[in-house]
């Protein structure tokens, strides 16, 4: 991302919830000026500090419930490319649910078992940490 002040900043999200925030030099956008690694808890604290109004009494916090939500990209070489979502038996095998699919600029909420997956799809998966990691491994099969 480039800020209004023309500063380049990146955030890399890891599966364990940690984040690495990097700011780049203005005279060389390929050279890091500063990099900070945050644990999952520190990342959440930063979100709370930046957006304290994001809490609403009607919204549930997945972290408080022991759940995680992740984006998992389906590779073109994946076993599931071109196959039906129901064929994965994702919920039965992992306890995790695919709650939405991002395909190009389109969001498909609550895909049904007869939804046909395609390489490049970004699957939004919610479940326990273990369930989501297992789902990622299953979706990554070639």
Structure description:
With 142 residues, this protein is an alpha+beta fold. The chain has two domains: 46 residues, no CATH class; 72 residues, Regulator of K+ conductance, C-terminal domain (Alpha-Beta Plaits, 2-Layer Sandwich). Helices cover 19% and strands 29% of the residues. It contains three helices and seven strands; from the N terminus they run βββαβαβββα. The strands form two sheets. The chain has a four-stranded antiparallel beta sheet with strand order 4-7-5-6. A hairpin with a 7-residue loop joins β2 and β3.
Short account of what is shown:
With 142 residues, the protein is of the alpha+beta class. It has three helices and seven strands. A hairpin with a 2-residue loop joins strand 5 and strand 6.
Distance between the termini: 33 Å
* Class of secondary structure makeup: alpha+beta
Mass-distribution shape = globular
Number of E-type strands: 7
Uncertain stretches of 5 or more adjacent residues: 56-60
Please, what is the average pLDDT?
A: 85
* CATH domain class name of the largest domain: Alpha Beta
Strand content: 25-35%
Largest sheet, spatial ordering of strands: 4-7-5-6
Question: Key features?
Answer:
142 residues; alpha+beta; Alpha-Beta Plaits; 2 domains; 4-stranded antiparallel beta sheet; 3-stranded antiparallel beta sheet; globular
